[in-house]
Amino acid sequence: MAKYLAQIILVGAQVVGRAFMRALRQEFAASQAAADARGRAERPQSAAASRIIGISLQEAQQILNVSSLNPEEIQKNYDHLFKVNDKSVGGSFYLQSKVVRAKERLDEELRIQAKGDKEKGRKAET
């Protein structure tokens, strides 16, 4: 009787293991497809910045509540959200760190745009 019970448990574990691996492969493939689609939608430098900083441009804009890449508006919203989420005033360190990452991402996008504008200016001169 114990032998049959052990076989049933072993077969059940194998079935669950295979199902788990299949689900894991599907999730990995879906994640790769989403990353590829996101990469095609953004410029190469912008996509690289999103991967390095770990936050997309759209998410950063949502966090800081900005619709355009206006440095003054970004800085104003960053200062406000950083102060509001300070731990000493009862804020959340997690939210404060998200605000910092969003600011870093938007600053990087501004730098990428400035570099692109500078390169376009050089190409127009030649």
UniProtKB/TrEMBL annotation:
Its main location: mitochondrion. Keywords: Membrane, Mitochondrion, Mitochondrion inner membrane, Protein transport, Translocation, Transport. Belongs to the TIM16/PAM16 family. PANTHER family: MITOCHONDRIA ASSOCIATED GRANULOCYTE MACROPHAGE CSF SIGNALING MOLECULE, MITOCHONDRIAL IMPORT INNER MEMBRANE TRANSLOCASE SUBUNIT TIM16. GO terms for cellular component: matrix side of mitochondrial inner membrane; PAM complex, Tim23 associated import motor. The gene is PAM16. InterPro entries: J_dom_sf (IPR036869), Tim16 (IPR005341). GO terms for biological process: ossification; protein import into mitochondrial matrix. This is Presequence translocase associated motor 16. It is a peripheral membrane protein. It is found in: Mitochondrion inner membrane. It comes from the Eukaryota.
